[in-house]
Amino acid sequence: MGLGAAVAVMRKIAVIMLASALLSPAAFAEDNEKMFTSAGAADVAVVGEPVHVGDEITASILVHNQGSETGSVRLVLTDSEGTNLSIGDDVAINPGSSREVSASMTPSSAGVLNMSWEVGSDDGGVSSLLQGSLEIHVYEAQSLDLSFDEVDWTLADGLDSQISVVLSEGESRDVNISIALGYQGVKHEVQGFSVTLEPGLRTLSLALGEPEADYLSVTLEPRGWTTSNSAVNLTWQVDLDAPSISPSVELGPHSPNKPSPGDSVSLPYWLNNSGDAVTLSGELRVVRTSDGMLLAERIVSSVSSGGTSSGTMDISPWPDSQIVELEVTWFMEGTVVSEFLSVESTDSGGGTELPFDLMAAFYGALSGFAVVLVGIIAWRTVSERTPGTEEGRGKVLRDSRITRRFEKAPAKREIQCPNCEQRLNIPSEHTGTVRCPACMSQFSARPAQEEPAVQSPTEPRPQGQGPSEGGTAEPEPAPWWPVATSNEEILSCPECDQKLRVPLERRPVRSRCPACRTEFMAEVG
Known about the structure:
Distance between the termini: 178 Å
Number of domains: 5
Number of helices: 3
Radius of gyration: 59 Å
Structural class: mainly beta
Largest sheet: 6 strands, mixed
């Protein structure tokens, strides 16, 4: 047999085999049969690689329904021993349509994972090509590590912390970070945010202001993945010490020792800080305490822990006062400390040193005297004006205002306190209780007709004049005048409180007030 005959025979065999395959029941779908085949690649696609322990991977394949009825399929993943690892959801596919079928799983151990996959259907008619196997490399779970690089708490900048987060080799990961502060056993979150970490070192800065706290806590939480660290190891804590300062002001000997008014005085100072933190920058002021006058000021820088800052305050001109009381105050935000100093000045005139300005006192006294004099003249002008000439010469002088007041006043009578013998003037018709202003005792006043007659004092006789016949002087009728009493030579007018001098040896005696022209009896009491 020649070569050409052999080729012809083989062609016939191939045609027969192809016809048999096309006419077989497995390859031919009747009108009511479903036939699921691959609509694309004949193998599943895996999403999520490279995969670490705890990560989720998803296998999927596109399936086509070339039958005439709708059917449902699902993807099943098994291990090398035939145990199901994952069974996907049933997916309904209409005739002539294609849909993706998938199944997900999470490896629990590192190493090579051999899996088998198969598309199954309760409706039957699945092509034998929709099955296979795959191999996946599973890596160890990634780890997180955190450290506090720096925790700095100062009065100027507040609480600042710098932390470092390390993610082991692998994929980028999302992490939730929680910042909390604790004070006296109570913990509360002050910040919370999410970051995406790349494998390697990541540094984060935290500005927390001026809190009340005795410890700082940072917690990391993987978002959507599993870390090799346990949950207990994802929280770190550090103790805090709030900054504390102890400032003080120290003053040195001033120069000159006894300055004169107008001089320039140098006052050395030392600003000390015995606390454990740096102070804030502030201001130093020198103030006169008597009137709050600012004599000098300057800006001072911060003082380190246990450090001292020194300088000199120049006070010019020096105040004109014999004794100058000074207050040197160091002002900082939230803190004020002071030191006091008393400086004796030298009188520039060389005479007697006075604790006040002599010229100012003189002008003040002169002004006060002028005011009093003008007031007295005006009062007398108003109270004792004489009638004008046009009113006629025959008219009498107008009574003073005090006289008119006494004329309008109700009649009074004099009684004596039974406890201290103080004499009191009360209205004639008063019959109730009376309080003595001298001893503060109360007693009942009898009606006027029941009072014994009060002997009125008489004016002293001229020297050498004896009593009248019978050996006793005849008493004058009781006057209506008010009575003023005192145990000293100085007493007060009962109407205007003008101070008068009436010798004790001349009392009782009738007197006249030179200010208000009121007549009264001056007595010892």
